[in-house]
Specification:
The protein has a single domain, classed as GH92 mannosidase domain (GH92 mannosidase fold). Helix content is about 15%, strand content about 30%. The chain contains 2 helices and 9 strands, in the order αββββββββαβ. It has helices spanning about 15-25, 100; strands at about 30, 40-45, 50-55, 65-70, 80, 85, 90, 95, 105-110. A hairpin with a 2-residue loop joins strand 6 and strand 7. It is globular, with a radius of gyration of 16 Å.
């Protein structure tokens, strides 16, 4: 362990980027462009959770929370089926805009064994 911190490796810091990437990937969201485009969006992937709730900070965002639900989720069902619901409306989109997420709402995914 590192003598300065008492844990881990000193000076081995990526400013939290690897941890942030893992959290987003585990939720099934990935920003290919790092949210740097004029209209940033997340690609929709396979979440490891059946349900996850992102609490949005009202100081920065209008929404209260964004809920991700993965029906039929499991070790064998790793593919997101094309049909999904974003804020209750059917969608076949492979991504969701950042602006939609921070408004609050939900995305309902159905998982399957085949793409």
């Amino acid at each position: 362990t590192d003598g300065i911190h008492g844990y881990g490796y000193g000076q081995d810091e990526d400013q939290g980027q690897l941890g942030a990437w893992y959290v987003m990937a585990a939720l099934g969201l990935f920003a290919v462009d790092g949210l740097t485009s004029p209209e940033p969006s997340f690609s929709i992937g396979s979440p490891i959770f059946d349900k996850a709730t992102i609490k949005l900070n009202s100081q920065y965002y209008k929404g209260e929370e964004f809920v991700i639900t993965a029906k039929n989720n499991g070790k064998q069902n790793v593919y997101v089926k094309p049909s999904k619901r974003i804020n209750g409306k059917p969608s076949k989109a492979g991504s969701i805009k950042f602006s939609e997420v921070v408004k609050g709402g939900s995305i309902e995914l159905t998982m399957g064994k085949k793409p």
